[in-house]
Design brief:
eight-stranded parallel β-sheet; alpha/beta; 419 residues; 18 strands
């Protein structure tokens, strides 16, 4: 463990650390902060009619366009580095040698060509498969072909694998998902491994053993797919809030809970609701995988996704997942410990105040910092991460007062100050 320490007038401030809480995870050195990038599923689904939908069908053109936009529009410079293909890229059958192959009409140059193009932009390439006999959309799965498929992915230059869990006996998953992880590591190519394993256990009312899952997977889905609607976002948030005692201790560098894609810039969320999703996903140390058409996204939505201060919270090196700590009268407070640490054990914090009221006027919310666990005697410098409002230096006994729009959020960073 390497620590960088800054000493100011006798006060020790911990600036950078590696998570020290649950580190009994997959040791492949990858995903030390939550992965960021693009994932096609929610926005583009399984559209395979490229004659009727030439710009939005699942094809090499779509992913090349998204790679171009990540670079040209500044996303890459902020950490969005993965271009991830989801279901429906495959041909209906394996080739004569038993290897996976893409649809020849929609991916005429092959997957390695696409990966090379994405790599040429300084980005990384992700792909989708399923542990079962077929993918969720009915294309060939990896069951019975784990080793050859891992080798195929490596030969193509894959940097990230999302492995779904349709069309397989869930009792096989505790063997199969680790086995696929073994074969990926055996290729010698660094491949981030995203598992849907716990989600299928949850669907079947089986409690996942996250400490075991973390030994094989860099991140994992554990709840429903997100849909392009506010109710879907809040449903996922409530699941994470209600299960934080299980989820939070098992997240950290190299092993993350994944509440699913960012739908900011699609059709279903207002601007305030989009700000909520970004804020809470950053509090939850979630992967930031955009599922929107980056060619046509509005400047307002782009500014949310490219908020440097929120991204810094999401990518905080301590790697501690935040959680909801207060819920009453449609007001929620979510909190995440972040760096720096001062006075030996006092973290700084990102704090989101969420208004779940769906109509009417804004709500005025006021509370003492000590009421939400911020107890550093030196106080905290508090700044709003969306509008830049500077609340100054607040002591634990002092109030912070904010105005929160209906279905809106205020998120602040409270930097701990030495005594």
């Amino acid at each position: 463990m390497v620590l960088k320490i800054k000493v100011v007038a006798g006060c020790v401030s911990l600036l950078v650390t590696i998570n020290m809480f649950v580190v009994n995870g997959l040791d492949n050195g990858l995903a030390l902060t939550p992965p960021m990038g693009f994932l096609s599923w929610e926005r583009f689904r399984c559209q395979i009619d490229c004659k009727l939908y030439p710009d939005t069908c699942i094809s090499e053109k779509l992913y090349m366009d998204m790679a171009d936009r990540l670079v040209q529009d500044g996303y890459k410079d902020l950490g969005y580095e993965y271009v991830n293909v989801d279901d429906c890229w495959l041909a209906n059958e394996r080739d004569a040698s038993g290897r996976l192959q893409p649809d020849p009409n929609r991916f005429p140059h092959g997957i390695k060509y696409l990966a090379d193009y994405i790599h040429s932009k300084g980005l990384k390439f992700g792909i989708y498969e399923d542990y079962g006999t077929e993918t969720c959309a009915g294309y060939p799965g990896v069951l019975g072909h784990l080793e050859v498929d891992a080798l195929t992915f490596a030969s193509w230059g894959v940097d990230y694998l999302k492995l779904d869990g349709c069309n397989v006996d869930i009792n096989q998953m505790s063997k199969g998902y680790p086995e696929m992880g073994h074969y990926l590591n055996a290729t010698g190519r660094p491949i981030v491994y995203s598992c849907s394993w716990p989600a299928y256990l949850v669907f079947n009312n089986i409690a996942p053993n996250y400490s075991e899952i973390a030994k094989s997977c860099n991140l994992w889905r554990n709840y429903d797919d997100i849909d392009d609607m506010w109710d879907s976002v809040t449903d996922i948030m409530d699941y994470y809030a209600n299960n934080s005692d299980v989820l939070v201790p098992n997240a950290g560098p190299g092993h993350w809970n994944d509440p699913d894609m960012l739908i900011i810039g699609d059709f279903g969320l207002s601007l305030d609701q989009s700000k909520v999703q970004m804020a809470i996903w950053c509090i939850m140390a979630s992967p930031l995988l955009i599922s929107a058409d980056l060619r046509s996204i509005s400047d307002e939505h782009k500014s949310i996704l490219q908020n440097k201060e929120l991204i810094a919270v999401n990518q905080d090196a301590a790697g501690i997942q935040g959680k909801r700590i207060y819920k009453e009268n449609n007001i929620e407070v979510w909190s995440r410990p972040i760096l720096p640490i001062v006075n030996e054990d006092h973290y700084s914090y990102a704090v989101a105040i969420l208004n779940r009221v769906q109509g009417g006027s804004e709500s005025i919310v006021s509370f003492k910092l000590s009421d939400i666990g911020l107890a550093n005697k030196g106080g905290y410098k508090v700044v709003d991460l969306y509008d830049g409002t500077n609340y100054g230096l607040l002591k634990p006994t002092e109030n912070i007062t904010v105005s929160v729009n209906p279905v809106g959020v205020v998120i602040v960073r409270a930097i701990a100050i030495c005594n």
